[in-house]
UniProtKB/TrEMBL annotation, chain A:
Pathway: Sulfur metabolism; hydrogen sulfide biosynthesis; sulfite from sulfate: step 1/3. The keyword ATP-binding applies. GO terms for biological process: hydrogen sulfide biosynthetic process; sulfate assimilation. It catalyses: sulfate + ATP + H(+) = adenosine 5'-phosphosulfate + diphosphate; adenosine 5'-phosphosulfate + ATP = 3'-phosphoadenylyl sulfate + ADP + H(+). Proposed to provide activated sulfate for transfer to Nod factor. ATP sulfurylase may be the GTPase, regulating ATP sulfurylase activity. This is Sulfate adenylyltransferase subunit 1. It comes from the Bacteria. Coiled coil: none annotated. GO terms for molecular function: adenylylsulfate kinase activity; ATP binding; GTP binding; GTPase activity; sulfate adenylyltransferase (ATP) activity. Transmembrane segments: none annotated. Its EC number is 2.7.7.4. The gene is cysN.
UniProtKB/TrEMBL annotation, chain B:
It catalyses: sulfate + ATP + H(+) = adenosine 5'-phosphosulfate + diphosphate. This is Sulfate adenylyltransferase subunit 2. HAMAP family: Sulf_adenylyltr_sub2. It comes from Ensifer adhaerens. Keywords: ATP-binding, Nucleotide-binding, Nucleotidyltransferase, Transferase. Transmembrane segments: none annotated. Gene3D superfamilies: HUPs. The lineage of its organism: Bacteria, Pseudomonadati, Pseudomonadota, Alphaproteobacteria, Hyphomicrobiales. GO terms for molecular function: ATP binding; sulfate adenylyltransferase (ATP) activity.
């Protein structure tokens, strides 16, 4: 979709009535994949809502009656292009319109002839970070906006960090309002450079930086070559069309059991959505936490008895023997099992005014499993320095590391490996509200209260191998826990000899 | 265009219909997941059934979610008494065919105080016969979860709504204080009297609905297909003129037009569109070039922008 930015202009008469619309040439999106889910984030007024409004407008997802309403609601509040305030397409709550800000996440839908998209417009105010986290949890890609005149802000850092923690690996840096800098190339390059450094420190490698004007629609759907001849990279939509959707098909089979179906004496099936890997009749599986083993006999769906199911499929599984399975259990591959235990480490984002209190008991829900947990905050991320500081409790919007201690066996995969079985929410039993979103990082062996937190291991590795290890995201996430000294092979064996005695 | 269907659905000898494309499959999977989660977590779920296309899809997904078992909750139809006759006939046929439990509720104030869309105006009428009626029915059944077929692409305040939408004991929605909803981990914890509205079709668009109806061969009310029908022009809408209770106003005349409906509700408040679409294929291609949204034909949504949010705060679906 490349055409000059003016090609999409809406024709209208002096009174602002729409006379002609961009030709409705929206071809059928090919449905070869599931929709790409993306979020827009960034600080207040960077233009997030305007950008999505522009995406909807230029992909013709806005219908005439909606445009007429929009025009009426804009109340003469038009920009110098005579276009309505696109943000009003998104800010659908009365309070948002009154205050001119985004309070809660809005989900919108649009498609090009290559693909369809679900976009979450998230609020920029720190106070509403929880709604940004909500949007980030399911996104495949984040569009991070910065105002070209202002550059990176703490909110940019916060949002990039939350997005990364939540497993987003593809970023678009949208350097917006470039029209207000006279299309200053140096400015664009400086901001992209700064962001790439931030991204690297977070372990993100896929960043596309685009100079754009959401308002004028330059480099959004249509290219902005007329104003920015110096930019020959892709438009935003081109990047979105090529982005990848993630799936958990390559890891071990996981089926969190939602309910047991027993319509009659002769049928007993376990219903749930495959959260990882695949399964076929004949496979041996283990039921957790009991540890009982069984074989899959049938995969039942409404349409047909299937010969296999993969991550994402909602199925009913039938096993070859009478085993005790109930809601909250997990049926998993026998040769690739998740972690089970009573103590885990996790990252969380605190979402409510009361924050997260030390030692408090919460409900934890992960998949279909809900259990009691005691939460101990350990550290909190300092967004200014990017360092983890010791913390006793976490306040609202804080990003923290916590220890989780359960009364009964818990079952997880590290979030890195599985975005479903590694994710959880915390629910405050006093208010029933969702107070945190969390991502499992590791299992702890909390035997007899001895914490392995301080345990250290010395590895002696060839430098190239060490470099590769340090370049991994896992390492990037725990940089501050590691101490790295480069020494010669001779020196290394000297040191290790003294340890071995 | 080569399709990348999961290998698992190819060449299944027992399958007669072609597999869903990955886009619709993903939407179906998500909806089934939500149905099962709510059915397992709540004590008294109910499904709002309005007989329209979204309800038809919702019902189909419910049947899929619980197969081979029965749908484990009743359907609730909040009737105003002013639905299209064809809708009611269709409803009764579906309930019989699929062995469903149907609860019908009509607000007794309708008859007692002669509340009609003509006498009370669309806003007050909707308030009493739909919003208030729904609250009555939900209270009577003590339901702690109610499924609805709302989609986020329908309207700006719906675009903000969670999949589990929390309601206070008096059914209020507080859009400024919604519970965060991360991943597909839903918080179903409510106290006595509180409830959630659950929306399995949140992420579907109107085109998705039609394409799914086509792919799955889901029965729908014939009013969605174009046919020559008697209409009368009123308030800028074409209204179906079949019901005896519709009195022509001075200057109004009945005439025949080839029309269909894009949404279905109460016949005096629902505008028809001129259309030649007599098949699902026709409807889908009509939609893909449509320049107006589906809600345009609904009087109750046009009152003012933000009117849906207001109604929702008060307990409307
Ligand atoms: N000149 C110019 N103004 C913009 C651009 N994008 C957004 N704006 C304006 O910036 C203001 C804030 O935009 P909004 O979308 O509400 O920001 P949000 O808080 O990030 O959602 C509005 O007045 C927009 O019209 C742009 O590319 N160029
Ligand atoms: Mg905004």
């Amino acid at each position: 979709m490349t055409a000059p930015a003016t090609a999409n202009a809406v024709q209208e008469d002096a009174a602002g009535h729409v006379l002609a619309f961009p030709a409705a040439d929206t071809a059928r999106a090919t449905r070869d994949s599931r929709p790409l889910r993306l979020i827009t984030c960034g600080s207040v007024d960077d233009g997030k809502s305007t950008l999505i409004g522009r995406l909807l407008w230029d992909t013709k997802a806005v219908k005439e009656d909606q445009a007429a309403t929009l025009r009426r609601d804009s109340n003469g509040k038009q920009n110098d292009l005579g276009l309505p305030d696109f943000a009003l397409l998104l800010d659908g709550l009365q309070a948002e319109r009154e205050q001119g800000i985004t309070i809660d996440v809005a989900y919108r839908y649009f498609s090009t002839d290559k693909r369809s998209f679900i976009v979450a417009d998230t609020p920029g105010h720190e106070q509403y970070t929880r709604n940004m986290a909500t949007g980030a949890s399911t996104a495949d890609l984040a569009v991070l906006l910065v105002d070209a005149r202002v550059g990176l802000l703490e909110q940019t850092r916060r949002h990039a960090t939350i997005a990364t923690l939540m497993g987003i690996k593809q970023f678009v840096l949208a350097v917006n309002k470039i029209d207000l800098t006279d299309y200053d190339r140096a400015r664009f390059e400086q901001i992209s450079h700064e962001f790439r450094e931030l991204a690297l420190s977070l372990g993100v490698r896929q960043v596309t930086a685009i100079p754009l004007s959401a308002l004028k629609g330059e480099n959004v759907v249509y290219d902005g070559r007329a104003s920015m001849p110096w930019y020959d990279g892709p438009t935003l939509v081109e990047v979105l069309e090529l982005a990848t959707t993630r799936s958990a098909q390559t890891v071990g089979f996981r089926l969190p059991v939602q309910r047991v179906s027993r319509p009659g004496e002769s049928f007993r099936g376990y219903q749930g959505t495959v959260a990882g890997g695949s399964v076929k009749p004949g496979d041996s599986v283990v039921i957790l936490p009991s540890g009982m083993v069984a074989n899959v006999t049938k995969i039942v769906t409404f349409d047909l008895v299937r010969n296999a199911a993969v991550a994402g499929d909602a199925i009913t599984l039938v096993l070859d023997r009478q085993v005790d399975v109930s809601r909250g259990d997990m049926i998993v591959a026998i040769d690739s099992q998740p972690l089970t235990g009573l103590a885990f480490d996790a990252h969380i984002v605190a979402l409510q005014p009361d924050g997260i209190q030390p030692g408090k008991r919460y409900w934890l829900k992960s998949g279909s499993r809900r259990q009691r947990v005691q939460v101990q905050p350990a550290s909190q991320l300092d967004l200014q320095t990017g360092k983890w500081e010791h913390a006793e409790q976490l306040s609202m919007n804080a990003i923290g590391k916590i220890h989780l201690v359960f009364d009964e066996q818990a079952i997880f995969d590290p979030y890195e490996q599985n975005r479903t079985t590694g994710a959880f929410i915390l629910i405050d039993p006093d208010t029933n509200n969702t107070v945190a979103g969390g991502m499992i990082t590791a299992k702890r062996s909390a035997l007899g209260g001895i914490h392995t937190e301080d345990a250290r291991v010395i590895l002696s590795l060839p430098a190239d191998l060490a470099d590769q290890l340090m370049a991994t995201e896992l390492f990037a996430g725990r940089r501050e826990d590691a101490e790295v000294r480069r020494v010669s092979a001779g020196k290394a064996s000297e040191i290790i000899d003294t340890i071995d005695g | 265009m080569p399709h990348t269907h999961p290998e698992t659905e190819l060449h299944n000898p027992q399958s007669t219909k072609p597999p869903l494309d990955p886009h619709l499959k993903a939407l179906e999977n998500e909806a089934i997941h939500i149905f099962r989660e709510v059915a397992a977590e709540f004590e008294r779920p109910v499904m709002l059934y309005s007989i329209g296309k979204d309800s038809s899809v919702l019902l189909h997904l419910a049947r899929k979610a619980f197969y081979p078992g029965r749908v484990p909750f009743p359907l609730l139809h909040v009737n105003t008494g002013w639905k299209f006759a064809e809708m009611i006939a269709f409803r009764d046929e579906i309930v019989k065919r699929y062995d469903l439990d149907l609860i019908e509720h009509v607000n007794p104030r309708g008859a007692a105080e002669s509340v009609t869309p003509f006498s009370h105006g669309s806003a007050l009428y909707t308030d009493i016969m739909k919003t208030e009626a729904l609250r009555q029915a939900l209270d009577a059944g003590q339901y702690d979860a109610a499924f609805g077929g709302a989609r986020r692409d329908e309207e700006a305040s719906r675009a903000k709504e969670r999949i589990y939408s929390f309601r206070t004991p008096d059914h209020r929605w507080d859009p400024r204080n919604q519970r965060p909803e991360l991943w597909n981990v839903y918080n179903g914890m409510v106290r006595k009297g509180e409830s959630v509205r659950a929306f399995p079709l949140s992420n579907w668009t109107e085109v998705d609905i039609w394409r799914y109806i086509q792919a799955e061969d889901i029965p729908i009310v014939p009013l969605y297909f174009a046919k020559k029908r008697p209409v009368v022009e009123r308030d800028g809408m074409m209204i179906l003129a079949e019901d005896q209770r519709l009195e022509l106003l001075p200057g109004e005349t009945k005439r025949d037009e080839v029309i269909r409906f894009r949404t279905l509700g109460c016949f005096p408040l629902t505008g028809a569109i001129r259309s030649d679409a007599t098949s699902l294929d026709d409807i889908i291609s009509e939609l893909e070039t449509a320049t107006v949204s589906e809600r345009q034909g609904r009087a109750i949504d046009r009152d003012q922008s933000g009117s849906m949010e207001k109604k929702k705060r008060e307990g409307y679906f």
